[in-house]
Design brief:
Helix content is 49%, strand content 19%. It contains seven helices and seven strands.
């Protein structure tokens, strides 16, 4: 078993690499190592588990993190010894905290939406449709808030991303060139959102038809009296909303991880002297 300790009082995430028994070097990506919402460490504890699979031999490596008011460490039971861990980088509060707290806020709103859907299911059919439509609008707004707040935070905080965004915007189609500020941009249209994130952060994101269709349905509900393009009444089911919640939660988690990764690579590593990288 390989074990490494870390300083959770100065780190919110860590990025680790280790060697598989087949010789392949594996990278964990950034992983949370403490509860950022916990201010009082007396009696506090936090655990996080992740599994990494080797792309070469497909061996899986479970990783366990533990943090309390006395000790902080990670362990990889499948590794022979500590020497198999090649590097462990601690990501400080400044870079990770805001992103993670925005994600925590997002997850809390998602859980509220789940409770709302469950409660609506117990009502009669007539009232259900009105409330399901409201719930759909709420869910899309949750996603819009997270994607918009995250985008604006990092573009406004780091000059590198702001420059990339401005250069890309001026070279792009008129729909982006005409924007005076990023505060004018909605993030409900997932296809446009993907392009904006690519402009600013140079990350690869895919579109999502389920989310795109839901956002369009939300617009028809709000702006066209809940009628589709053919004039028929839009009907929504609880299972449809639950599937949408799961899809949005998964999509946002992917976006958040990619943003943290690019901040780490471009800002943290990029600003270090060459002999520290």
């Amino acid at each position: 078993m390989a074990i490494k300790s870390y300083n959770s009082s100065q780190s919110d995430f860590i990025k680790m690499s280790f060697q598989c028994e087949c010789g392949e070097i594996l990278d964990t990506g950034l992983m949370p190592v403490c509860d950022l919402r916990q201010n009082n460490r007396e009696g506090y504890s936090f655990t996080y588990d992740k599994s990494i699979e080797c792309s070469k031999c497909h061996k899986k490596y479970p990783i366990h993190f533990y943090d309390d008011d006395v000790i902080s460490y990670c362990e990889i039971p499948s590794l022979a010894n500590d020497d198999s861990i090649i590097s462990l980088h601690e990501i400080p509060y400044e870079y990770a905290y805001k992103s993670n707290t925005m994600y925590v806020d997002f997850i809390q709103e998602i859980r509220k939406a789940q409770q709302i859907i469950d409660s609506i299911e117990n009502l009669d059919t007539e009232n259900q449709q009105v409330l399901f439509r409201m719930a759909l609008s709420y869910i899309i707004s949750i996603m819009d808030a997270y994607l918009g707040d995250t985008f604006r935070y990092y573009v406004e905080k780091y000059e590198k991303f702001k420059e990339q965004y401005e250069i890309g915007r001026k070279k792009s189609k008129e729909q982006f060139r005409s924007l005076k500020t990023i505060n004018e941009q909605s993030f409900q249209n997932i296809n446009k959102t993907v392009k904006l994130y690519q402009l600013a952060f140079n990350i690869e994101l895919s579109g999502n038809q389920l989310i795109q269709d839901a956002a369009q349905k939300r617009n028809r509900i709000i702006h066209h009296s809940s009628r589709d393009e053919d004039g028929y009444e839009i009907l929504i089911t609880a299972s449809e909303l639950k599937d949408l919640l799961a899809e949005i939660e998964s999509y946002v988690k992917t976006v958040g991880q990619k943003i943290i990764d690019v901040v780490y690579e471009e800002i943290i590593i990029g600003n270090r002297p060459n002999n520290e990288q």
